Each structure stands twice: as structure tokens, then as C-alpha cells.
Amino acid sequence: MKNVTDSFVSLGHWPSAGSFGFNTDILATNLINLSVVLGVLIFFGKGVLRDLLDNRKQRILNTIRNSEELRVGAIEQLEKAQARFQKAEMEADQFRVNGYSEIEREKVNLINSTYKILEQLENYKNETIHFEKQRAINQVQQRVFQQALQGALGTLNSCLNNELHLRTISANIGMFGVMKEITD
């Protein structure tokens, strides 16, 4: 420590200008050199350092501003995307509800048309049964009539002889004559 104070004290005893010498005290010369370098750096580097720091500050502020703008933009896009998603969900729900109601409507229509078809088939069946019944009745009536006619003809042919046959024909011709006179 004594060497440091000695170096400052010895500064006052420097010889007058004109002579140049080397100071061999390392600690004294280092402190002097260091203080000179720091003084020069502070004097000349103050503006450069300030400019560097100002530039750095501006870049940081610009980055923060850009980040904030990007954040605001991202929030807006997120809100828009959420709105589109909600709209799409509502449309999907609407399609789902419409689809279910359409399916129910089609189901009811199909059931109703099936009942109508079954009713028509039942009517056709009943009409066919009625028609077949009527046809069977007509066939039975024709057979009964034919058999009755054949039986009557057989009875008449066995009971009638030629004389009775001629009298019946003459009586019928007479009746036709009377009918003709009445109509004229």
C-alpha cells in the first residue's frame, strides 16, 4: 500500500519537461495507464455507448411493439376462429336436428304409404274374393238351371206325346196371334 501512495507522491517530484524517462514502478504505471484509458474510453466512448444502448433499446422496444401487435393479431384471429367454430357447431347442430326431423318425417311417410298399400291390397283381396264368390255362384246357378232345364225337358219329353205336343204348339201360336193384335 505504501508503494501506491509513494507513486502519487512522486508525481509531484517529476523532473521538468524536457526529459523523458521510464517509470519502473509497475503498480503506479498500471494505475495511471488504466485511468488514462478509462478516461479516454469514457470521453470518446460515451457517445458510441449511448448510441449502441439507444439502438439496442429501440430494437427491444420495436420487438416488444411488434410482439404486442402480433399478440393482438393472434387474439383477433383466435376470436374469429372461435366465432367460426361456434357458427360451424351451430350449423352442425342444425343439420343434425334437420336430419333427425327429416328422418322422422320420412319414417312417418313410409309407414303411412305402407299402410295405404296394405289397405289397397286388402281391398283388392276383398274384391277378388267377392268376384270369385260371385263367379262361383253364377256357375252354380247356371249348372242348377241347366240341370233343372234338362230335368224339365226330360220330364216333358217323357210325358208329352205327339198329340199333346201339337196342341201345346197350337195354343202358343194362338197366344202369339192375340198378342200381335193387341200390340197393333
Automatic annotation (TrEMBL):
Residues 64-98 form a coiled coil. The chain crosses the membrane at residues 26-49. The keyword DNA damage does not apply. It comes from the Eukaryota. It is a single-pass membrane protein. It is found in: Membrane; Plastid, Chloroplast thylakoid membrane. CDD domains: ATP-synt_Fo_b (cd06503). One of its GO terms (molecular function) is proton-transporting ATP synthase activity, rotational mechanism. The keyword Chloroplast applies. One of its GO terms (cellular component) is chloroplast thylakoid membrane. Its main location: membrane. It holds the Pfam family ATP-synt_B. Keywords: ATP synthesis, CF(0), Chloroplast, Coiled coil, Hydrogen ion transport, Ion transport, Membrane, Plastid, Thylakoid, Transmembrane, Transmembrane helix, Transport. HAMAP family: ATP_synth_b_bprime. F(1)F(0) ATP synthase produces ATP from ADP in the presence of a proton or sodium gradient. F-type ATPases consist of two structural domains, F(1) containing the extramembraneous catalytic core and F(0) containing the membrane proton channel, linked together by a central stalk and a peripheral stalk. During catalysis, ATP synthesis in the catalytic domain of F(1) is coupled via a rotary mechanism of the central stalk subunits to proton translocation. Component of the F(0) channel, it forms part of the peripheral stalk, linking F(1) to F(0). In plastids the F-type ATPase is also known as CF(1)CF(0). Belongs to the ATPase B chain family. F-type ATPases have 2 components, F(1) - the catalytic core - and F(0) - the membrane proton channel. F(1) has five subunits: alpha(3), beta(3), gamma(1), delta(1), epsilon(1). F(0) has four main subunits: a(1), b(1), b'(1) and c(10-14). The alpha and beta chains form an alternating ring which encloses part of the gamma chain. F(1) is attached to F(0) by a central stalk formed by the gamma and epsilon chains, while a peripheral stalk is formed by the delta, b and b' chains. This is ATP synthase subunit b, chloroplastic. It comes from Bixa orellana (Lipstick tree). The gene is atpF.
